[in-house]
# Entry
Amino acid sequence: MHFNASISSAQDATTALEQDGFCWVSPSLLSSITHISANELAQFTPYWDRLAQDHFLKDAGQYRLRRHSSYRVNKTDVEQVPHRAHWQSIDHNALHGGIERLFEPVESALSSMPAWARLMTSLARLFTPADHNPLWFTEAHQFRINTNGGMGRPTPEGAHRDGVDFVAIILMARHCIKGGETRVFNIAGNEGLRLTLTEPFSMLLLNDHRIIHETTAIQDSGGAGHRDTLVLTYRSGGFQSRI
# Structure
């Protein structure tokens, strides 16, 4: 696998996704692609202080807090759908797949921000050929992984696919932690590489058909450690469901 550190435009990101199945996007390029300033992005961050406990962890851990909402998105418009459970197949999530997990929704004050919608439509344009405008079934996951129990696991299910077409992982904050290294692997072979998102509003984009990914555990390095991310998934044809 090849890590292209010279991504400097939306076209570069699209090309990297086509060639490599993934790419890393800097905070400045994220702002350029989405037309969302650093100040606007910073207005998202207080909402990570009000996430709800994830009660579905099968390891009985208390280290993950989250919220989740679903949307229909195209290149120009966002429609939030009635609150629904998150579902993945066992094939895609061997640990937590096969069950409906109903989390607390993204707060309406965040979900109604113009920049929130602009983020989702901008990524829809990035994932969509210029001559198409499909409807993307998009799920937004706010995560906080903390170290209250000594260690937190961003991906307790291990290396996995999400069961969608594209995934965007945006780092919102890292506070007093070590670890949290993201590993991506080519699904068609043994190739892989490692990188750590360290700058707030840096982003990792994945073609979920070609790449499996995981993030290593985090440990406290100074008190009240946590790692905050926003994960946006884009799927054509409909949301994942039991039926």
